[in-house]
Amino acid sequence: MIPRQIYRDQQIEIRVPLEQEADQLFSAIYSSRHEIGQWENWCTDSMTLKDTQRFLHDSDHKRHKGSEFNFNLFEIATGRVIGGAAINNISHENKIANVGYWIHSQFTGRSLAPLAVKYISEFAFNRLSLTRLEIVMMEENHRSRRVAEKIGATAEGLHRNRLYYHGKPRHAWVFSIIPGDILCLEYFGLQD
After folding, report:
1. What is the pLDDT confidence band of residue 184, given thresholds at 50, 70 and 90?
2. How far apart are CA 121 and CA 101, in angstroms?
3. Beta-carbon count within 10 A of 135 CB
4. Which of 126, 117, 54, 56 is nearest to 87 (CA)?
5. Strand pairing partners for 102?
6. How many helices (H) and strands (E) does the chain have?
7. How far apart are CA 19 and CA 59, in angstroms?
8. 157: helix, coil or strand?
9. What residues contact residue 22 under an 8 Å CB cut-off, 6+ apart?
10. Most confident of 32-41, 55-64, 175-184
11. Do 86 and 68 touch, CB atoms closer than 8 A?
């Protein structure tokens, strides 16, 4: 059985969002849409609550099929959605997948993305038996690159035309994590 929750401490919970939480998720994404939308095709000014409801419905279906796993970060005190992390583009045949993440604009700079990457990686290796995760970000996305560097992911270089963003190919940095890599959260004041 696939767990809905992959992490919880006194302040943060990382778990699968419920369809009833669509309003909270939409609010978090929409209020951060300018920052997230710089790097993600799916995040635009035209997104609606119905899009978020559809995403959550589709996400639940994909989770049950084992084709994609989407989690959100919740602030325990308020119940607010403050970020997201996902395992997508899964190739079960090759045992690899991509890891993606975003953090609400009001919560950046708190090492939440490295925390999410650590626990979503453990989930991917321990529960899904994957053997390689890739973090891929556009060349200019310095914040995302810093997250990958913070956790100790291995930089594998700048790949030409690796991503497609708003109708144009874009160069992207590729970082990898494999089982046995020691993710460096302790250095950044984060605990297991």
Report:
1. low
2. 12
3. 25
4. 117
5. 84
6. 5, 8
7. 10
8. strand
9. 49, 52, 53, 56
10. 55-64
11. yes
- DSSP lists the bridge partners of residue 98 as 88, 134
Token pair for residue 70? 């989407």
Residue 94: partners with Cβ closer than 8 Å, 6 or more residues away: 132
Q: Where are the domains of the chain?
A: 5-188
Q: What angle do CA 150, 152, 156 make, to 5 degrees?
A: 110
| Sequence-distant (≥ 6) Cβ neighbours of residue 183 within 8 angstroms | 114, 117, 118, 121, 151, 152, 153, 177
Angle 163-63-104 from CA coordinates, rounded to 5°: 60
**170 neighbors 189 (Cβ within 8 angstroms):** no
Instruction: Return the amino acid letter for 55.
Output: F
Q: Are 53 and 23 in contact (CB under 8 A)?
A: no
Q: What is the spatial distance between Cα 190 and Cα 14, in angstroms, rounded to a whole number?
A: 14
Residue-wise pLDDT tens digits, 79-117:
999 999 999 999 999 999 999 999 999 999 999 999 999
Superfamily of domain 5-188: Gcn5-related N-acetyltransferase (GNAT) (3.40.630.30)
